[in-house]
């Protein structure tokens, strides 16, 4: 099981707007069965930490290519992504393997 997190650096004052759009996009992917439940969180300057950051995170059993054969991306999600891009300065994706009892090392 993996945690997949997209990290967005957004234009000043746009964190809440981008977080709204990304939640809608994530919900569209989830509804289409292309992604697990998505959690979106952000800092628009109202809490300590890095400002103008938005995070979209979900869990998945595998790490699959978005270009894999047979995948048709949800049109609604693609349209929302286009609206999001105008507010994004840069983004990256992070992958983490989740700890499970079966993966735990024995002393």
Q: What is the tally of beta strands?
A: 4
End-to-end gap: 23 Å
Q: Compute the CA-based radius of gyration.
A: 15 Å
Mean pLDDT: 92
The level of helicity is 25-40%
Strand order of the largest sheet: 2-3-1-4
Share in β-strands: 25-35%
- The secondary-structure element order is EHEEHE
- Helical/strand content category: alpha+beta
Which parts are unreliable, with pLDDT below 50 for 5 consecutive residues or more?
none
Structural shape = flat
Q: What can be said about the biggest beta sheet?
A: 4 strands, antiparallel
Number of helices: 2
Summarize this structure as a short list of keywords or feature phrases.
107 residues; alpha+beta; 4-stranded antiparallel sheet; flat
Concise description?
By secondary structure, the chain is α+β, with helices and mostly antiparallel strands.
Descriptive overview:
The protein has 107 residues and is of the alpha+beta class. Helix content is 26%, strand content 30%. It has 2 helices and 4 strands; from the N terminus they run E-H-E-E-H-E. The protein has helices at 15-31, 75-85, and strands spanning 2-10, 39-43, 53-60, 88-97. It has a 4-stranded antiparallel β-sheet with strand order 2-3-1-4, with helices on one face. The radius of gyration is 15 Å and the shape is flat.
């Amino acid at each position: 099981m993996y945690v997949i997190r997209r990290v967005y650096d957004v234009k000043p004052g746009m964190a809440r707007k981008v977080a709204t759009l990304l939640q809608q996009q994530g919900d569209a992917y989830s509804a289409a069965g292309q992604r697990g439940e998505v959690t979106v969180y952000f800092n628009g300057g109202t809490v300590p930490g890095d400002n103008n950051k938005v995070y979209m995170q979900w869990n998945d059993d595998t790490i699959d290519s978005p270009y894999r054969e047979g995948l048709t991306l949800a049109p609604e999600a693609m349209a929302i992504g286009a609206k999001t891009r105008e507010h994004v300065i840069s983004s990256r994706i992070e992958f983490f393997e989740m700890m499970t009892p079966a993966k735990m090392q024995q002393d």
